[in-house]
């Protein structure tokens, strides 16, 4: 044991010299609000780290996304299998050999890969990890509403320079689990009682978006949908059953989840987890539903990264995935953001529809060198996902036209350039909007989001057997829009067509056909004298607050059914 420790120490000294580099120098390492350090981790404690190995043929991957997602392409809908994706992006033999040799030399042998071979998760002791990654120093932290425990390093890590062409980054060192931005708003005051509703329920959604009792899944196709949850939160089957008993009486539905991937805790149900499941399954009614529940939960793992790895390790997946996860773009390293974006491209080539919540902070706000700027969110800002904003009823108690929900996340990426599919729509907005914020606040040439929207204000949710009113956030609008896309997939599959896949190229080509245009309202931003808390404002056509608008189901079905 003494000799092995000496060899490991010698190896670490060699790596920590001048021949090393930092893969994520720009990764934010400040402790998030609500988290506290519990001190250094025991050197003999085990943790897991995820090594993102350098992929091949990414330009070709990008080209394939375009051709399988563009309705004017002969390859439209001819999606790749996971094996085809693996053949395309699999790291080179040199990369696989070099990384394996490095890990074995450090005594790291307990590793597991994925089908695409571009991720490697290894279990090792804290002592081994700190020798392997000079500069890292692992501490225990606790935080979040569920008092989650994680192991993270407050200091940057180094890798041998020889690994620079082979490793994108190492996961499990810096990024903390996300926290929910879902909020319960005060109940609005009722003025008059004729024709009112007392909050958003499945029946309110179905009435507003023009669904009939027949607009449900057939129960006979191989159609399926999923929501992914990365908070330390769980849903309960009994809550889902009670929700459907209270609110699902007017349409055929399923009262249980078909499959849970990951660990379902035994504790109290979380409002966000309950919301995701209940509204995905009531909007996408009678369609088989999966839940990804903090998959692979371990103190050293990053739940969102684990979900991306699961996508690379399952050949058969649900067609629609709704995700209510987001981080500030500026808090994430360039290496991490670019690699996650590649994972989203991989999903798009396979015909998966990924819907992400646009966030609940409007345009956001942060200070850069003493100057305020808007603060985009990722993965909402990825060009390879469909991002969902939020709306409110013009009259909060009547099923009326929708206006902007002031929390609806939206804006322009500081990382990703504007994709070609949205060039025309965004240019038109920038040239015609009468209420543009100062140009110094946003990157007008960046990927603009959201793409679509749905109601995000005043939902009823059942959690821990209790009906809870006035729950609000784009965590609500996202599963609703996802469920409606699942119903459209049902029609496509039953008529012999492929599922919708990556929706954006088609959505923008059709100029938002099948959607209610939301033209009134602005979202929130920096509270300063220059913009006075106002971000972007909605208007005719696409805008960075509600995208193309909210679903008018019969018209949306008609516009997306063929080819």
Structure description:
The chain has 14 helices and 30 strands. The strands form ten sheets. Strands 11, 12, 13, 14, 16, 20, 21 and 24 form an eight-stranded mixed sheet that branches. It has two domains: 123 residues, no CATH class; 344 residues, 3-Layer(aba) Sandwich (Rossmann fold), CATH 3.40.50. The N terminus is likely disordered. Helix 8 runs parallel beside helix 12. Helix content is 28%, strand content 23%. The protein is globular and about 65 Å long. With 563 residues, the chain is α+β, with helices and mostly antiparallel strands.
Blueprint of the fold:
Elements lengths: L1 H14 L4 E2 L13 E6 L5 E8 L4 H12 L12 H8 L3 H13 L4 E4 L5 E7 H7 L6 E5 L4 E5 L6 E2 L6 E5 L11 E2 L17 H7 L15 E6 L7 H11 L11 E4 L8 H13 L4 E6 L9 H9 L8 E4 L3 E2 L5 H16 L3 E5 L8 E3 L2 E3 L3 E2 L7 E8 L8 E3 L6 E7 L5 H10 L13 E4 L2 E4 L3 E5 L2 E7 L1 H21 L9 H6 L5 E2 L5 E3 L9 E4 L12 E2 L1 H9 L2
Parallel strand pairs: 11-13, 11-14, 12-13, 14-16, 16-20, 20-24
Antiparallel strand pairs: 1-8, 2-6, 3-5, 3-9, 4-5, 6-7, 10-26, 15-19, 17-18, 20-21, 22-23, 25-26, 27-30, 28-29
CATH homologous superfamily designation of the largest domain? Peptidase S8/S53 domain
Helix coverage percent of residues?
25-40%
Mean of pLDDT: 91
Biggest sheet record: 8 strands, mixed
- Report the oligomer: single chain
How big a fraction of the residues is strand? 15-25%
CATH architecture of the largest domain: 3-Layer(aba) Sandwich
Subunit structure: Monomer. Interacts with CLN5. Interacts with CLN3.
Domain Peptidase S53: 199-563
Enzyme class: hydrolase
Binding site for Ca(2+): 517-518, 541, 543
